[in-house]
Amino acid sequence: MSQRIFGAVLLLACAGLGLLAWGYHAPFSYEPVGPRAYPLLLLILMGLGALYLLVKPASTTSPSDEPPLDRHVIGKVVGCVAIFILYAALFEPLGFVPASLIFGIAMARLYEGTWVASVISGVLLAAGLYMLFDKVLDVPLPLGILSALES
């Protein structure tokens, strides 16, 4: 029941934020898709997740099947927040691709991925997101230390 309540609240929040984002227009144009596309895309994805929480069948698990909120879980949450802060701090100076590579590897290692799988997923994440935003959506991204490779 708590998941359905969370889903309903999240869906309402997404709808409200979507209405706010829809009316946003920047006084200048700095990218082809405009400044509202990214928040709207995220809100649509979050809204779909909220809808899933509302309509999914009832869980057959008992509350005792949930992992306890112990030091291990809290450590992972704190680690995740620290990695996000590190990503935000490194985004401009290092550039999108190196910061995303470090982020992908760190998140995979945080959740016990092997080094090989972590590096592969980090490379795929950084390269894939760069191709999506820079080439497909034509959103300019900071190159940072890779700016010398720009042609």
Please describe the structure with a list of short key phrases separated by commas or semicolons.
151 residues, single chain, mainly alpha, flat
Task: Give an overview of the whole structure.
The chain has helices at residues 2-22, 37-55, 71-94, 96-110, 115-136. By secondary structure, it is mainly α. The mean pLDDT is 84. The radius of gyration is 19 Å and the shape is flat. It has 5 helices and no strands. Helix 1 packs antiparallel against helix 2.
Total E-strand runs: 0
What structural category do the secondary elements indicate? mainly alpha
Mean pLDDT across all residues, rounded?
84
- Uncertain runs are none
Strand and helix layout:
Blueprint: H1 2-22, H2 37-55, H3 71-94, H4 96-110, H5 115-136
Helix pairs in contact: 1-2, 3-4, 4-5
TL;DR of this structure?
With 151 residues, the chain is mostly helical.
